[in-house]
Specification:
The protein is mostly beta strands and about 650 residues long. The chain is built from two helices and 40 strands. The strands form nine sheets. It has a six-stranded antiparallel beta barrel with strand order 9-10-11-14-13-12. A six-stranded antiparallel beta barrel has the order 2-3-4-7-6-5. A hairpin with a 2-residue loop joins strand 3 and strand 4. The longest helix is centred in the middle third of the chain and has 7 residues. The two termini are about 45 Å apart. The relative contact order is 0.11.
Length: about 650
């Protein structure tokens, strides 16, 4: 229980739920507005109960996948709340004003975002609270105005009530950040467990959210001796722009792209090769067409240029701890190679890149970003081959010559008309040397690269912006090569059709060679659970963005990565290939990393729901490392 430090008001208690103690309150600690009756069934369904193993509070649904509550409800004791995954497994019950029923939803919280200056925080739900209308943010409260307070906290007679209660309070004081309210006229009080609940304007029309419950004298609450029924509310009437900027992560493609870092030219950081175990910080927001605010993640192409030793690069948010088990890009001595990654900027809008070994130049180019109020949602699809210049699939037969280009149509099949961008796996086949590819909407131009390749076969996941006709042009700046392209997902034009990306810090999922493990055998399959490490239910995830690294292959081949639901047929030689290639590799290769967007199905065998299946399509063994960089819900109305 937090206390105000001012001696004059020292006894005024914060409305946090009591610490969970099995000897006193058992399995939960929701505790509601005192002195009033439960609300009629179905009233104020946007009011929620939020709880973990430490405390329970109230909250309010402000977007289909977001609730608003007080930051102190979610913070660890004695600590400030930090943006990111909650420190404890936290759930929200919403759309259920009588907790004894099964109405509404019980959903896991996957991330929290504290307000920078107020005791307010957003909590991201694992999926949308379908059927529960969010509340709108209202205007400022006026002195003398009567408002309605709701919550699941303690009452005058119950420690742990099962029903939502609400009572009338009069505004007696207004400051820039807070309201003072008094429930004496209606004999109402705010009690422990009401913290984070809504203060509502309920006149004509739909209710509006004005403030959240913060602190109270708790007069009239069970086991409290103080008689004062006044409380302090934290204002939210001016927070609509902050909520909007924090609660949507749609994709906006940049064409042309832009260089964020080039150590050869001194772009983004001082010029010069980067040595072993060095970290370089560089700006990611406010440059290259990326807005300076409201951006949750950027999509970048990361290139290692002629390292003097086998190395790997790791790109991560500046100001955070570098993920020890994650690499963005693996590069062998002397080669120029790239990969694509989705990464969150640090709090100051910057990224960091770490070089593991040797000396290397580093280039980072941005091709898109995730933001609010613009762009489109994500939809993952089963990996589908759409172009193969060797056979004439989706194009004419024949290699793309040096400095030549080829334009492809990507809509009309698994990608619907109107899609604005596509996520692809591009394999460059039969190269006799090094080079790179550019890509842009038909009729446009872009001097940045999307894929750097080496001799033989190089494959990489990329994102490409489309023209209004669903077409994009690929330019080859190297020896004549064949291109094999598969679609992995797309970006919708309508913000309501696709899903928001939920970018994560790098989540290390599996390393088949770690802790004495064995590489994946020839025709071996690996099922990787994606939802468990995030604490979300399998039905919440519709797609994911992964970094897949292959290391030390003993034979040439490729991996497939697909939904783990199956069924997966097999014959006398083992599992049959049921998806398109990603992560092509060559025998003896040190390591190679690629971005993969993969569809995650919700129906099928229990063990595979919420997972992906990785198959080693080669005659040898290969070490496989998988890292999660983001995920998203199924498209609205999707059944799997």
């Amino acid at each position: 229980m937090r206390l105000i430090r001012n001696r004059r008001t020292r006894a005024m208690a914060a409305l946090l739920a009591v610490v969970v103690a099995a000897s006193t309150i058992g399995g939960g600690s929701a505790q509601a507005v005192s002195g009033v009756s439960p609300v009629p069934a179905g009233s104020y369904p946007f009011t929620a109960k939020i709880q973990n193993d430490l405390r329970a509070c109230s909250a309010v649904l402000v977007e289909p996948t977001w609730v608003l509550t007080t930051a102190s409800c979610l913070a660890e004791p004695g600590q400030q709340l930090v943006a990111g995954p909650p420190a404890r497994r936290t759930t929200v019950t919403v759309g259920r004003t009588d907790l004894r029923t099964t109405a509404g939803h019980v959903l896991a919280v996957t991330a929290v975002i504290p307000h920078p200056t107020r005791n307010v925080a957003l909590a991201h739900l694992e999926k949308a609270a379908d059927g529960v209308p969010p509340i709108a943010i209202g205007g400022a409260a006026a002195q003398g105005e009567t408002l309605l307070a709701a919550g699941f906290g303690r009452t005058a007679t119950e420690w742990v009530p099962d029903e939502l209660h609400a009572g009338a309070f009069t505004v007696t004081g207004v400051t820039a950040d807070t309201l003072t309210v008094d429930g004496s006229a209606s004999a109402a009080s705010l009690c422990r467990g009401d913290a984070g609940g809504p203060l509502l304007r309920t006149g004509a029309g739909e209710p509006q959210l004005v403030a959240l419950h913060d602190r109270s004298w708790q007069g009239g609450c069970l086991a409290e001796t103080d008689t004062r029924r006044t409380a302090t509310e934290v204002r939210v009437d001016g927070l609509a722009p902050w909520i909007a900027a924090s609660t949507s992560t749609n994709y906006v493609a940049l064409s042309p792209g832009a260089s964020l870092l080039d150590t050869r030219a001194g772009t983004g950081a001082p010029a010069g090769p980067r040595g072993a175990d060095s970290t370089t910080d560089f700006p990611a927001l406010g440059v290259g067409g990326v807005p300076s605010t409201g951006v949750s993640a950027v999509l970048v192409d990361v290139t290692a240029v002629s390292p003097t030793a086998n190395t790997f690069l790791t790109v991560f948010p500046q100001g955070t701890t570098r993920p020890a088990l994650s690499s963005s890009l693996n590069a062998s001595t002397g080669e120029i190679i790239s990969t694509t990654q989705v990464v969150r900027p640090g709090a100051d809008g910057r990224l960091s890149v770490h070089n593991r070994a040797g000396s290397v130049h580093i280039v980072v180019e941005v091709h898109g970003y995730f933001t609010t109020g613009a762009g489109g949602g994500l939809v993952a699809v089963p990996h589908t081959r759409v172009v193969d210049t060797r056979t004439g699939t989706g194009t004419t037969v024949g290699k793309v010559p040096t400095n030549g280009s080829r334009t492809f149509t990507f809509t009309g099949g698994v990608v619907p008309s109107g899609a604005t961008s596509v996520f692809l796996d591009v394999a460059v086949v039969g190269s006799t040397g090094t080079g790179f590819l550019r890509a842009h909407p038909e009729g446009g131009a872009d001097d940045t690269s999307v894929l750097d390749y080496v001799s033989g076969v190089t494959s990489q996941g990329i994102a490409v912006k489309l023209s209004s006709a669903g077409r994009a042009t690929v330019v080859n700046k190297g020896p004549a090569v064949d291109l094999v392209i598969s679609v992995q997902g797309y970006v919708t034009a309508d913000l309501t059709v696709g899903a928001d990306l939920r970018p994560t810090s790098a989540v290390h999922l599996v390393d088949t060679g770690a802790n004495g493990g064995q590489p994946l055998p020839a025709r071996g399959e690996l099922f990787v659970k994606l939802t468990d490490p995030l604490g979300v239910s399998p039905e919440a995830m519709g797609g994911a963005i992964l970094a897949v690294t292959v290391a030390g292959p003993t034979a040439s081949g490729y991996l497939t990565v697909e939904s783990g639901v199956g069924p997966f047929p097999a014959d006398q030689n083992g599992p049959i290939v049921t998806s398109q290639s990603v992560a092509n590799f060559t025998a003896g290769q040190v390591a190679r990393t690629t971005m993969v967007m993969v569809k995650v199905d919700r129906a099928g065998q229990n063990r595979a729901t919420g997972s992906v299946r990785i198959l080693n399509v080669s005659g040898g063994t290969v070490r496989v490392i998988v890292t999660l960089h983001g995920w998203f819900n199924p498209p609205p109305g999707s059944s799997n």
